[in-house]
Design a protein that fits this description.
- The protein has one domain: Rossmann fold.
- It contains eight helices and seven strands.
- Strands 3-2-1-4-5-6-7 form a seven-stranded parallel β-sheet, with helices on both faces.
- The protein is globular.
- The structure holds nicotinamide-adenine-dinucleotide (NAD).
Length: 250
């Protein structure tokens, strides 16, 4: 694994306790960044923090990202512990299960929109003032190819990720002249714990749609996310970066 230019940067990675978020946190730490993992799961957050702390400065915040007050507190604590905030990766997400859209209980639909769309807005709103104070910042939102293509039996998930893509574009334009770049990535399926929230039939459907004929590795997604958080990414903002093995057609 090569080092990216992240020396001295401070990054928040939501959902960093496992899966794609943990791969992002690991790549950032070995590239010289200090990282704060923000996650709902105290045991996994602590385990991942301790594992990564061998290579750099890593803290963890345990919170539900849909809770505005908890997010504001976590942003304050992170800035105090690390001295500043440079990078936000809005990665945490849930699927909400698989079923035809008309059978999704309204409460389940709302929770998916809350975690996948409202929480990135709440977190970014708390973090942007810190990025503006720095005069430099990068935000990477983890959307999904489902947000571009629309997966059957995952309407709540697809709609939340499409919303996140739209939010990315608006926020990017608001910050375009402030040295804060905002982009999103749209991965295809990666074998993580999130698979437990999906039916076997849906997982097979997703694999069948990937021209490369395999699942994406979390390290492959992390490589793209981390590059988007470096100064090398300097003239792309409001953009949607595909990492779908050829599935996305636009
Ligand atoms: P994962 O389930 O392995 O990990 C998600 C992490 O987010 C968990 O540690 C969980 O505790 C945390 N989290 C969930 N809700 C939270 C909340 N309300 N507050 C705080 N933390 C919360 O998932 P993953 O596969 O690593 O996915 C990460 C992101 O990538 C998600 O946004 C997902 O939608 C997206 N994505 C995943 C895939 C895939 O196939 N794995 C494909 C495309 C996009």
């Amino acid at each position: 694994m090569n080092r990216l230019d992240l020396a001295g940067r401070v990054a928040i990675v939501t959902g960093g306790a496992r899966g794609i978020g943990l791969a992002v946190a690991r790549r950032m730490v070995v590239s010289g960044a200090s990282v704060s993992i923000w996650d709902l799961d105290p045991a996994a957050a602590e385990e991942s923090r301790a594992a990564l702390a061998a290579d750099g400065t890593v803290t963890a915040e345990v919170l539900d990202l849909t809770d505005e007050m908890a997010v504001a507190d976590a942003a304050r604590r992170t800035a105090a512990a690390h001295g500043k905030i440079d990078i936000l990766v809005n990665n945490a997400g849930i699927t909400g299960g698989n079923m035809p859209s008309w059978e999704i209980p309204a409460e389940q639909w709302r929770r998916v929109i809350d975690v996948n769309l409202n929480a990135p807005f709440i977190v970014a709103s708390a973090v942007v003032p810190h990025l503006l104070a720095n005069g430099w910042g990068r935000i990477v939102n983890v959307a999904s190819v489902a947000g571009k293509e629309g997966n059957p039996n995952a309407a709540h998930y697809s709609a939340s990720k499409a919303g996140l893509i739209g939010y990315t574009k608006s926020l990017a334009k608001e910050l375009a002249q402030r040295n804060v770049l905002v982009n999103c990535v749209t991965p295809a399926a990666a074998k993580t714990d999130i698979f437990r929230q999906m039916t076997e039939a849906h997982i097979n459907f997703m694999l069948s749609k990937i021209p490369m004929g395999r699942f994406v590795e979390v390290e492959e997604i992390a490589a793209l996310i981390c590059w988007l958080a470096t100064p090398d990414c300097s003239f792309s903002t409001g953009a949607v970066f595909d990492v779908s093995g050829g599935r996305a057609t636009y």
